[in-house]
Amino acid sequence: MIVPNPHLQHIASYTPGASPDQIKAEFGLDHVEKLASNENPRGSSAAALEAAREALSSQAHLYADGGMRLRQRLAEHHNVSIESISVHNGSDAIIHQIMRVFLLPGETALSSHGTFVSFGLAVRGVAAEPQFVPLTAGYRFDVQALVAAVTDRTKVIYIANPNNPTGTYITHDELVWLMDNVPSSTLVVLDEAYVEYARHLAPDTYPDTLSMPYQNLLCLRTFSKAYGLAALRIGYAIGHPDVVQWLIRTKLPFDPNGPGCAAAVAALDDQDFVHESVELNGKGLALLLSTLHECGYVTSSSIANFVMVDLGDAFTAAAFHKHLLLQGFIARPLAGFGLPTCVRISTGTQEQNVHLADVLRAYAAETVEAPSPSLIQ
Length: 377
Known about the structure:
This protein folds into two domains: about 5-45 and about 270-365, Aspartate Aminotransferase, domain 1 (Alpha-Beta Complex); about 45-270, Aspartate Aminotransferase, domain 2 (3-Layer(aba) Sandwich), CATH 3.40.640.10. Helices cover about 40% and strands about 15% of the residues. It contains twelve helices and 14 strands. It has a seven-stranded mixed sheet, with helices on both faces. It has a five-stranded mixed sheet with strand order 12-13-10-9-14. A hairpin with an 8-residue loop joins β12 (about 330-335) and β13 (about 340-345). It starts with 19 loop residues before the first helix and ends with a strand.
């Protein structure tokens, strides 16, 4: 019998949210809105789609260039050297590659409970040990707890900023303090998949990571969220060339795909689309947060394109999630993220957000006794 390596035999796989077709079939619904995966409700830039179509029609028979043109364009966009950038088939792939490159079996990688699940999967996939510290009472990364948990076996620290699924963030001063207090031999990975939604924050509030001088700081970004190219799987890493070169040297040939790279280059040149997407999200986020608080629900102070609702116990969270499904809204239960009392809801179009707000108010009128202060800082 063929069996996998022992450390993989009990590893859990990533479980994506249910699709609209699944929910329609299960509950007999005619119309379902998916607000579970933090996708861009505006879709994609028209210029990016046209670039992908052109690349597919003219280059589908050719191997991709390994993202060289995209790396050049990203270097110009971020005002960094091309040697500082590596591009990949999604930032998920980078997380897994980081662990393959920088972790040995038995070493540890450190993060927080209630963060992106790919971290733990990637660490366990190389027979290393993921370690977690608790979130703060405000659902934020606790940088002091992270530093206190570092040992001589800690080779990687992973921080999602803004965090998924809470939408909270660590500040500039917190990141500087952390970087100044961890060994220079420990790689700090800052996953900034939702960084575009933090543009309204001042640089002395949200960290300007690309201007920081730390050689052991590696930033991950993606075209899946504000850029609206989730299906094309394009992510990238920015860091010191001495670190980034190992991602370039060890990635698969011809990674990432050609149409995705072409779309990403065009998307970078269509910043109006990104700005409009962020503006739409800001309005939707404000509506959902204000509605949830009006109804007495507890949420995190999210700045991303989703809201996390803490229902207090797993049973109430399951009932809340089930009710949204029956009303035609797919949200994301967070037991798999280590937050069984919580549900994450992505922002949608203005029409979706208004409809969802009505559904939330009606449900709260039936189930929530009295509103109370509900934004946990």
